[in-house]
């Protein structure tokens, strides 16, 4: 009889459905992330190469990538960072949402941070839809990645991310309004033939800097990330999509 596959410790939002308690823990985890500024570490190329090789060895190129840990907001208690597809733009608006306004059964973890004490991942950012099934090779990679992060003291620098299916650009909003993530090919910069600029925040197997499946920031302003500041008397979850579209047009980021 074949030996049973060894499984990593179950991770909420990856191996099973989320609960309100999981979402409350995610709020705490998110608020412990380093801010998105010029103090974020530069990940040595050897580390990038090592983890990309792990992804390839376990054959999970179409499921996982790894993420430079950082946050874009100070979440209020009772809210989580949740990404939802936009109706008027092929993009995802990732913003704080009240826990009592989301459906945990129709959410999955998108980015996970490792708790070195328990050697298990915790989700801190979410997307719509139930978690995808995990295969033996998926679980084997998660365990190998956990071990690599712990053995190289990287648990506070790198996390696990579900891989996007295209090169992505991330546009940051100020005043805790989150970010908009969209395919780079839909940005005005791409359509005008400009090369992508910004800081790399995720790497997939075989992706170097901004090539391949990566999430990046737009060009920085005054040595910091490009942040779109717009006045609003409403909470992020109370604003409509026009708030996002107007900002993107004002900053000449989309046509």
Description:
The chain has 255 residues and is an alpha+beta fold. The protein has one domain (20-250). The protein contains five helices and eleven strands; from the N terminus they run H-H-E-E-E-E-E-H-E-E-E-H-E-E-E-H. It has helices at residues 20-31, 45-58, 136-151, 188-191, 241-250; strands at residues 64-68, 79-85, 91-98, 107-115, 120-128, 158-162, 168-173, 179-183, 202-203, 215-217, 227-228. Strand 7 (168-173) and strand 8 form a beta hairpin. Helix 2 packs antiparallel against helix 3. The longest helix has 16 residues, at 136-151. The protein is globular and about 45 Å long.
State the helix count. 5
Distance between the termini: 60 Å
Q: What is the string of helix and strand elements?
A: HHEEEEEHEEEHEEEH
Helix fraction by DSSP (H/I, runs of at least 4): 10-25%
Give a short overview.
The chain has 5 helices and 11 strands, in the order H-H-E-E-E-E-E-H-E-E-E-H-E-E-E-H. The chain has 255 residues and is of the alpha+beta class.
